[in-house]
Amino acid sequence: MFGSFWYSIKQAALQVVRNRAMSIASLFSITAMMLILGLFFVLIVNIGVAMETAKMDYDTVSVYLTDEVTYDSAMKMADQLRAMSEVAEVSYLDKDTALSQWKVQYWGENAYLLDTLPENPLPNSIEVTVKELSGADAVVEKAKSFQGVEDIKYYRDTVQKLVKITDSLKVAMLIIMAFLVLVSIVVVSNTIKLTVFARQREIEIMKYVGATNWFIRGPFLAEGIFIGIIAAGISVGVVAALYGKIVQLMGTDMSLMIGSPMVSVQFLVVNLVWVFLALGISIGACGSIVSMRRFLDT
Amino acid sequence: MIVFDHVTKKFAANVGLEDVSIKINKGDFVFVVGPTGAGKSTFIKLILKEIEADSGSIKVSGKEITTMANREIPKLRRNIGIVFQDFRLLPKKTVYENVAFAMEIIHMSPKQIRKQVPAVLSLVGISNKANKYPHELSQGEQQRVAIARAIVNNPTVLIADEPTGNLDPDTAWEIMRLLEQINLRGTTIVMVTHAKDIVDKMGKRVVAIEKGHIVRDEFGSYGKDTNGMGMYPGGLLKKSYVR
Lengths: 298, 243
What we know:
By secondary structure, chain A is of the alpha+beta class. In chain A, 73% of the residues lie in helices and 8% in strands.
């Protein structure tokens, strides 16, 4: 068993060296595919993270109260909301706290300008965090029934639109990725077919002497996997370098623009390595098995 | 050893073999003769299970092979050595490596290989060429390497498909003596040939196939041509039209 394993590895290495030009050609094609895949992957991951961030921001319903509502009655409303199954968390935000939060979040250094306001323009509010975005409707209905509610704000429509857009983006990208993987398999199988052609006589003799199909396939399988692994290594390196540069150049701007940070290079590389290795190995293996099929009929 | 029982194999264009029954015993030396396209190749391919019979039964070493699963074919072939007219050596391997290759394929240990290969090379008489490449050898020497490769795993049957077809008469005779010697060690030999002089002089069992049928099965000579041309072109003559 181990004998034929090492035999395969040895033969595969020999073949790669003997068919340098073809090996390099297929290495380049797979690497190119993987680079494109990698960029899509980076995009998808970042969009996903941005979406999650957005959802987190938007899973609250703010119930603004008129100034006439006393603290005690506000607490009663809060208790009623807290009793709902859709609700995860309820907190009361008095207008003074709201103002100071507002100053910090949106005005920063210029917050002193707000000190000149004759009175606090912000209302008291009850901040409700829902478990699922879909539960927000029920919370809104309930809140509407309360006395002294001035306004209710929530971002369901916006979030749903975002989710829809990113979902269809993801599907489109998955289709493109699947297509690219298919193309890679065809490229690898054609490369290996050429090496198989070159060794047709050897394969014929092997069959006459009584070699099993898996024994014959072994070296070609190893060759395909070998090319796949190297392509994966190169692509991960290039994508990581490119992405690192992009993060470095526009990381902070991007986080201001879309309100979420970009995924870290380390996180991406760790995931990409596994995805690409799996892809490279399966592309190489499928490619070689597909190309061998015709030669091993009898 | 090899038993065909009412075997038929038809191709789209012609009849390969039709209702053929034959028994080849262990240790036999059998010549299979006949015109091109008569069904000789079909006969060999059926023994190797390279093609499937349409009907009938084929037994090799007591095993029915028509119903054999594909994954058992390698096992069957390890029991059969084969030699071709064009030698089919691997050009990038040395003589030693070409023979060792046949043993590597069936997972023999390096130790067994180191022991067996020189013994076989010595048997076929080319020990001194072990490190040469096929293109550095004469045709006769190349065929000896091919024979060494075919017998290195001690098959019970050796199939030779026109092994002297590319050789000059003297070399052809050397190869025949070698095959005879291998036969004397107990290996069954089935040799397809057009070489009339060889068949006549050897005086072995001759099976003549024509248009998919066995028309003659007896000890002795190549026999008469049935298409009215006198004798089959054999020996030197044969050689000239193959090239």
